């Protein structure tokens, strides 16, 4: 990440309406910088970038990363 503008991709698929994908800033100041709302069946493909180091997902969704696939608790 230090010499590139992009990192790993991840995929989020909403299993209900109104799933929120929230990007958090990289660096010493960690704050929300973007909130994307997905409706059921919508898919977001995104990357970790020089601006985004963490992502928070709210709602029922499937998340795929290079570390594996997981469901948010609400999907259990
Ligand atoms: N402008 C943001 C960035 O380049 C877009 C973005 C990338 C984003 N990955 C994200 C927004 C993950 C929310 C969640 O970092």
TrEMBL record:
- Give the GO biological process terms: DNA-templated transcription termination; regulation of DNA-templated transcription
Output the Pfam families linked to this UniProt entry. Answer: TrpBP
Under Gene Ontology molecular function, one entry of this record is: RNA binding
Question: Which UniProt keywords are given for this protein, alphabetically ordered?
Answer: RNA-binding, Transcription, Transcription regulation
Q: Where is the Tryptophan RNA-binding attenuator protein domain?
A: 6-72
Q: What does this protein do?
A: Required for transcription attenuation control in the Trp operon. This trans-acting factor seems to recognize a 10 bases nucleotide sequence in the Trp leader transcript causing transcription termination. Binds the leader RNA only in presence of L-tryptophan.
Stated family: Belongs to the MtrB family.
Q: How does it assemble?
A: Oligomer of 11 identical subunits arranged in doughnut-like structure.
Question: What name does UniProt use for this protein?
Answer: Transcription attenuation protein MtrB
Recorded source organism is Pontibacillus litoralis JSM 072002
